[in-house]
Specification:
- The protein has ten helices and ten strands.
- With about 350 residues, it is of the alpha/beta class.
- The strands form two sheets. The chain has a seven-stranded mixed beta sheet. The chain has a three-stranded parallel beta sheet with strand order 5-4-6, sandwiched between helices.
- Helix 4 links the parallel strand 4 and strand 5.
Amino acid sequence: MQSILSSMRALALRQSTGDAVRRLHLTAISEAARKGTREKARKKKVKVEVKKVGFIPHNQRDKKINVKRADKHVDDSWKQVSKDDVYVGRYYRWPVYSVAEAIQCHRETHHPSMYNVPKAPLNVEIELNMQGEKATRFVDNFQRMAMIPHKFEHGEERKIIVFTKGNDELLEAREAGASLVGGVELIKDITGGELLLSDYQFIIAHPNILPELVALRGLMKRKFPNPKSETLGANLAEMIVKFSSGISYSATKDEYQQNFGLIAASVGPLDMDAQKLEENLKHLLQDINSMRPKREGKFITRVLLKSPPSSEQLKIDPFVYVPEMWDKSSAKVKRDEAKKQEEPAGTEAQEAVAAN
């Protein structure tokens, strides 16, 4: 009996001692202390490396920095017109030259007594308002070929391959200056791998060969002839002349200002007749104006004539050759005419795709 009582006293003592010890280790103070010790141990394990960054030029810094940029559309209509020949340019309007006057000014600076580059190219920079029909929409970047009346050496390799059937069409394409002309046999050579389409910059086709040409759609991809890009049509000679001697240009939106677009192209060398240069420029402006959106306001905002190596840029009035504002009635007439021209080729293209 005494042994049982002694064992019960020992068990009670052990339980009371365990509860006291447990309470001692579960207090809030001891828990906070242990937590702080663990955090210090973790920090010791992780070494923080401080990278030393030197000076970074402004054009190499992070592009995500929100910088307030100046509007690229130049509007100096609020400035006064200078009454003298010598003035501080930023306080007055840009002088507007006629094309003939601008050409003559560039010829004087490129005279043998100055720059001595009489055959320098006459370049044109055309600034566009890329605002679309809606405030949140903008005209997409586009690339076109403008047909000009007077040829000049553009310094580009332009190999043209033409697909057509019929002896008359084949002869017409060869006489117009196509690099390679053929029909069904030419399509077989390409599908067999004997000829590479990548060797040719432009692909033109007559509607009469469309059913057979559909077999090359996968190889041509975006280069597949269509009326919209003016590479599909019955007038092969006109298309070949346009793509071999026309002015190739592209309109590109600014990265930071979506409503500002720029086109840079050459209209001929300075030693070409001034009237021919002006006619080339006129046809280029008219081709660009055909891409204008259906909205009020200007599409072409400013045109500058340049000629390297001179840094001089002369402003001309483009609205002598194209309308300044969008004319709804004339645009409807042009759209109807374009639909009439595209209907025959378009229907044949759809029939060819459906047949295959």
